[in-house]
Amino acid sequence: MATTTRARTRRPAEAEPRQRDAEQTRRGILDAAVVEFARLGMSGARVDEIGRRAGCNLRMIYYYFGSKEALYVAALEKVYGDRSEERRVGKECLRLCR
């Protein structure tokens, strides 16, 4: 009885190792969460879809935010914080134009 061996195929080596950027990952998750929560609300948004949009796995979401609820709160803070900054800049512009 002849035995055959299968040739092992190797993945091509990446040209450069992938750099990890914690702040960029966190920002990407938060940006994806804002979109998903805006579309579907807290109960309709799915964490796995947020991960897919952000290009990361679920573990990273829970690592950075702890829970879906905490991610929702962070998304609200981001949206309202951005709006607050826009109002502050707008008021400053009006003050300078007078």
Account of the 3D structure:
Helix content is 70%, strand content 0%. The protein has helices spanning 22-44, 47-54, 58-65, 68-97. Helix 1 (22-44) runs antiparallel to helix 2 and helix 1 (22-44) crosses helix 4. With 98 residues, it is mainly alpha-helical. It is elongated and about 75 Å long. The chain has four helices and no strands.
- Helix count from the secondary structure assignment: 4
Give a count of the beta strands, DSSP E runs of length 2 or more: 0
Gyration radius from CA atoms, angstroms? 22 Å
Coarse morphology: elongated
Q: What distance separates the N and C termini? A: 95 Å
User: Which structural class do you get from the secondary structure elements?
Assistant: mainly alpha
Low-confidence stretches: none
DSSP strand content: under 5%
Characterize the biggest β-sheet: none
Overall mean confidence score, pLDDT? 83
- Relative helix content: over 70%
Secondary-structure element series: HHHH
Sum this structure up briefly.
By secondary structure, the protein is mainly alpha-helical. The protein has helices spanning 22-44, 47-54, 58-65, 68-97.
Secondary structure elements and pairings:
Elements: H1 22-44, H2 47-54, H3 58-65, H4 68-97
Helix pairs in contact: 1-2, 1-4
Question: Which structural traits does this protein have?
Answer:
98 residues, 4 helices, elongated
